[in-house]
Amino acid sequence: MDMDELREQAAAAFRALDVPNELTLDSLRQLLEEDRGKEIVVRSVSHLGRDQISGLWFSLPSTDLILHAETASALHREQIILHEFAHMALNHERLMGSEDHLASLLPDLNPAMVSRCLARCKRQSEPEIVAESLADLFAGALARTRRAGRVEPGNFRGVFG
Question: Which tens digits make up the pLDDT trace of 147-158?
């Protein structure tokens, strides 16, 4: 696992999305909706985050659904959502193999959904590392937009008069 190569995969996905200079969480969601051709719904779920999973993404036929843990920190909530957005941008739903064996584990759920969720529990897998790297790039773009919107003096005299 070459970390530089994984980071480059994330950077290539960031460039491919043609992220605008002024980025907000909502504008990123809209960009991904256009790219994927379906609505993205984001919902908070109280019982997530108690163990290791703080966010889940379900790629449904007409909707992408993101469920995230409730958190007191807006920044933490944003990072969870950005991580799930990164999985979408990277088309990680295509990485899952055969799901026939999963039907016997959880017969009431779609095996494809179960497969995607179980695969996400491997935190040090290459797809997870690339997704987190891309989420960090998204977060950096959001931070630059926030900084640019502030009216801050750019010199000593402006700060101290």
Answer: 887 645 555 554
